[in-house]
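Chain A, query sequence.
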Amino acid sequence: MNRTLAIAAVCLAFASAPALADRIVALAPLSTLGAEDTSAATRKLAAQIEQALASVPGTKVLGAAAVSDAIARAKKPQLRACEGDTACVVELGRLVGAQIVVTGEVGGLGDSRVVYLGAVDVTTGKDLRATTLALGANDDPAGAAVRLLDPERYRGTIHFAIDAKGATVFVNGTKVTPSATGDVVLPVGTQAIRVTHPEYHDFVRFVEVPYGRTVELPVGLQQYPIVEKSVRGLPIGGARVEEAEVPVWRRWYVAGPAAIAASIVAGVVFYVIARDGYPDCKMGVCTCHVVGGGPCTTP
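Chain A, predicted structure.
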């Protein structure tokens, strides 16, 4: 009985324990002009960045306030504004027990502010990535957090609404296959889109892909006025072969009998000339020519 209770207590303890995070990320105190910025606006901004970092899966965040308190307890004020010094950032990360430290330098005035963010790997002592967060441009802090900690997830979606079956989609020169619903997941930023079809003009656009959102892209293809029924192939250089349909008078079931009839008429004419000859009259004097030297019949 006691053994059963002990096992149940252990299981309950494991069930109630918080899940272990894959990594601990510390947000260093934000700075302005090389000094820690303690203004209310910057504290609010730091809270938004902390929330964005925590939204990245497998991440536990130590906020700027907790990091600042740890610096005060350790009596190391030089760690409050490392100003891009990687060794200083690594020391700060080791102080608070973080695997990654995110630093931020705030610039600009009022609502039109830009935060320059950087991430440093405490274990290797190397700069991981850097990005900017433009507040005046309604930039998403969640997107900035993903760019720093998990750039492979920094993607958006284009939904292709193509009005012709059998079209091929290229993104930045690489062929892609949309999903059954017409979606293609792509990195955030400007993408060069080309949609091709043997019987239609190419559709070419530059599309801006936002983070975590879907862009609707209607693709209206314009058909060629003359279309070859079967594509013979692509010559050197990748140019498409386009030919008009064969006219009726050139098709085999018209051209063949016409050629035979012409041959028969030519044969009859030759036969008549060979049999009766033909006169050659010059200056009132007619000379008879007969093919093969036979008799000549003059009119």
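The radius of gyration is 41 Å. The longest strand covers residues 100-109.
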